[in-house]
Amino acid sequence: MVRECAITYLEDENSDVRKAAVGTCMLLKREPIIYQMSDHAMQIVGEVLEKLLMVGITDSEPIIRKEVLSSLDEHFDPHLAQAENVRVLFMALNDEVFAIRELAIAIIGRLSIPNPAFVMPSLRKTLIQLLTELEYSVVSRQKEESAKLLALLIASTQHLIKPYVEPILKVLLPKSRDSSSGVASKVLGVIAELAQVGGQDMIRHLEELMPMIIETLQDQSAPTKRETALRTLGQLVSSTGWVIEPYIKYPNLLELLMSVLKAEQSSGIRREAVKVIGILGALDPYKHK
User: Residue 38: CB partners within 8 Å, gap ≥ 6?
Assistant: First the structure.
């Protein structure tokens, strides 16, 4: 029914009809055929997906392109992981709408698990492109978007990104002090994601990261950046197991965290401060008064 009827309306002149056709085609994921791997089933689902993906990258209406990509959940992964479909999804990374690029990179990251051999070469190019934009762009908005996409990429492809922790961090560290608080905040978010991937490997970078994080926490002019810095600190400590010692190495850290709890108006920032204090652990009150 979907292949014979609904799919024909994906090219209708009326955008409402095309959007309704997308929704109808997506009903395919409720059918048993989506789980079957026979040649016949693969052919039917493949034909529908091919049409949907073309709509997802060529339709003139952003809302329809977004509708297609947002509906491509895990049910479709065995079919989306086919080489030709992955190629089309990489095209969506060039969409003019940032939200669509976010959806595309999340899907591609998900597909790196069933089909790493095909996804990784193109993913490597995307990683280089995002790092280049972040490092050399003079437009703050583009740097923010690149950082956000980079965080999504790292979060969804942790097992593949680990060999690239060092070069990624090399680009991120200078940008964490960017004059734009929006850019700096997004970069700190990327470092938090990278900490989950790097684990113990991040220990060697703590001497560079901690002064920057403490400096950010002291900046009263950018609440969002301070909240992200707290989240990043918590992730670094939990990923590396570096507890208690930060209080000793940076004596003003505990006082800084307590001042956030006492004076900060934002409940989100106070909540993150409580989490960080819990992760860092307790000092011996007899040794440190």
Answer: none
| Total residue length of the chain | 289
Got the DSSP string for 218-234?
Answer: T-TT-HHHHHHHHHHHH
Contact 232, 192 (CB under 8 A): yes
The fraction of the chain above a pLDDT of 90, given in percent, is: 66
Burial 170-198 (b: 16+ CB within 10 A, else e): ebbeebbebebbbbbbbbbbbbbbbbbbb
Q: Is the pTM of this model over 0.85?
A: yes
Q: Which three-class secondary structure string do you get for 68-99?
A: HHHHCCHHHHHHHCCHHHHHHHHHHHHCCCHH
Tokens of 12: 């209708």
Q: Give the C-alpha separation, 27 to 22, whole Å.
A: 9
Token pair listed for 176: 């964490």
Place of tokens 């440190």: 288
Determine phi and psi for 142, rounding to 5 degrees: -65, -40
Burial class (CB in 10 A: 0-12, 13-18, 19+), 246: buried
* Amino acid occupying residue 50: E
